[in-house]
Amino acid sequence: MSTVSGRDAFTLEKWLGRLTLGLVCEHGLAMKAPGQNWQQLAKVNAVALHRLVRPLFEEFVRRTPGSSIESKSAALAWHYRGADPEYGQFQAHELQIQLEDVLKRRPYRVLKGNRVIEVRHKAASKANAMRRIFELHAETDFVFCAGDDRTDEEMMRSIPPHLVARSVRCWVGGRNQTAEYWQKSNDKLLDELEKLVVLFGQRVPSVLTGQDDRTRSSAPERRPLDPRGHSFRDAPEVAERSGRAARAR
Q: Is a pLDDT exceeding 70 seen at residue 249?
């Protein structure tokens, strides 16, 4: 099981380091196998990015009460979760327009996430990270993949063709064309995952309750899915018939 995140390595280690998980930080900048050191996947110099983008971010922090800047090794993010929702959305749109103009023909991508605008180097990609995960785990015969922003779309699209028919892709927040299943919120998704692992014959490890992890796992057969997408509540039926599973999140 792997967590592919936009968060920096320090934060992921703090939150998830004690669990037996593969970790990928900053949208694919580096990855860490359980019990091993971080391995750089993309060589990126963030000096030019900070020189170009930070002054603009600082200006929007001054203009938008409740917003803040997050610095990463290869990216810079402007968060407006604490701002007035309507005004924050308006400012995010303005910032995105200005960023795309400033960064035109430069090797950076502007990403609009859940109340965040992030700029990262094109070399850092969740899709590249997923391809590396599958290279390391060639025996994978089932994939569960969940996400809620544009970087997760590229992650879902990177699932190898031979595994697409044996995967469950779930979007959080509503319907999305890259995923067959969807759930309204992270809490709802976690509820469904707990039901799913019961069908796999596992006991769910819980960070909140401190329960132990059990390593036995199994993989489902796959039935045809409605391409229009539907609630993840149907997914346990897909996962009920089993073999061995490797899940990527």
A: no
pLDDT tens profile 39-97: 999 888 788 899 999 999 999 999 999 999 999 888 999 999 999 999 999 999 999 99
47-121: CATH superfamily: Trehalose-6-phosphate phosphatase related protein; domain 2 (3.30.70.1020)
The residue type found at 90 is F
Non-local (6+) Cβ contacts of 19 within 8 A are 205, 207, 213
In this prediction, residue 198 has a pLDDT band, given cuts at 50, 70 and 90, of confident
pTM beyond 0.90, yes or no: no
Residue 87: count of CB within 10 angstroms of its CB:
15
DSSP E strands, 13-66: 22-25, 30-32, 38-40
Task: With beta carbons less than 8 A apart as the criterion, state whether 53 and 88 touch.
Answer: no
Number of separate helices (H) and strands (E) present in the chain: 8, 12
Superfamily of domain 1-42+124-138: HAD superfamily/HAD-like (3.40.50.1000)
| Burial class for 178, CB neighbours closer than 10 Å (0-12, 13-18, 19+) | middle
Closest CA to 249 of 12, 38, 1: 1
